[in-house]
Write a structure and sequence with these properties.
The protein has 2 domains: 166 residues, Rossmann fold (3-Layer(aba) Sandwich); 84 residues. Strand 8 and strand 9 form a beta hairpin. The strands form 2 sheets. The chain has a 6-stranded mixed beta sheet, with helices on both faces. Strands 7-8-9 form a 3-stranded antiparallel beta sheet, covered by helices on one side. It contains 11 helices and 9 strands. It starts with a strand and ends with a strand. By secondary structure, it is of the alpha/beta class.
């Protein structure tokens, strides 16, 4: 099905603007009702009404109606949201045979992510959010990274598109919200200065990133053969494991990356041992290949 996409729509201004701009390319709309606010049903209604108006196919995951028992051991709320969301997107993707999904991350989200990465003193090759990335079997496409949240709200108002503002975005419960509130106080000059700093950082690393992507794609083609990995220069290995974890839908961190490299080095001759990624998810080495499993 050429040029057809799924789209994730929350009912907020970003995703409603994206839906309106790209609806001619959309095969189906995906909405998750987490029931995390008293008025979350209103978000769903806004999305339903829009889809009905333009005769768009809509799929809804409702945490009060659909089975969420598999997520009961997840203690971090943001991780809980993320796992539910992407499992749902992947399910619809497989049902419809469409791998590409439009995501409404915008310029503010991009800079918030960049700021948080810099604050963690991580070994960064790329700051912010990529326009296109792969997550499990999904291809995520973010067309709005050059648009500010304010401009998207203005767009919705100019087109009389109904949207909802999620008041939990202003709670200090989450570190991203603290960064969001801080950046909201920046003037245009400070905002643009930081944006250019991030873009320049990414531009400087572009050659290395492209080379790394090429090596990772070759590794995928070789079914994650450990001999291929072991021959790679050490300065690429951490980044390859980072991409591997993203590829299988596991959130990377430096400790996990270092432990996996150590696991591969210790078990390069084959072993029945498994490395636990989280809860019931593991990797093991069999026939010189890294295998991912859910038990």
């Amino acid at each position: 099905m050429k040029h057809k996409y799924l789209i994730a729509v929350s009912g907020g201004p970003d995703s409603m603007a994206l839906l309106n701009k790209k609806r001619h390319l959309v095969e189906a709309v995906c909405h998750v009702n987490y029931h995390d606010r008293e008025d979350s049903d209103n978000d769903e209604k806004i999305v339903r009404d829009y889809c009905k108006k333009y005769n768009l196919k809509l799929f809804v995951f409702d945490t009060h109606k659909d089975d969420v028992s598999k997520y009961k051991d997840i203690n971090n709320l943001q991780t809980w949201y993320r796992e539910i969301r992407y499992d749902f997107f992947e399910k619809i993707s497989q049902e419809l045979g469409i791998k590409k999904i439009l995501i409404a991350h915008q310029k503010n989200d991009f800079l918030e992510s960049a700021y948080m990465s810099l604050n963690k003193n991580k070994k960064n090759l790329f700051l912010g959010i990529r326009r296109k990335s792969k997550f499990r079997s999904l291809i995520l496409i973010r067309p709005l990274l050059n648009k500010t949240k304010k401009s998207l709200e203005q767009y919705c108002r100019s087109k009389n598109i109904e949207f909802v503002i999620d008041y939990t975005n202003f709670w200090d419960r989450y570190s991203r919200n603290v960064v969001r509130k801080m950046m909201a106080e920046w003037d245009k000059k400070t905002f643009q200065k930081f944006y250019l700093k991030v873009k320049w950082f990414n531009l400087k690393n572009m050659f290395f990133i492209k080379l790394l992507d090429s090596k990772f794609n070759n590794w995928i083609k070789q079914d994650f053969d450990i001999n291929y990995f072991l021959k790679i220069k050490n300065n690429y290995k951490e980044s390859l494991i980072y991409l591997f974890l993203n590829h299988i839908g596991i959130k990377p961190n430096e400790n996990k990356i270092e432990q996996i490299i150590e696991f591969i080095n210790k078990n390069k001759n084959g072993s029945v041992k498994k490395y636990r990624l989280k809860e019931n998810q593991f990797i093991e080495i069999k026939n010189k290949k890294i295998l991912y499993s859910i038990c």
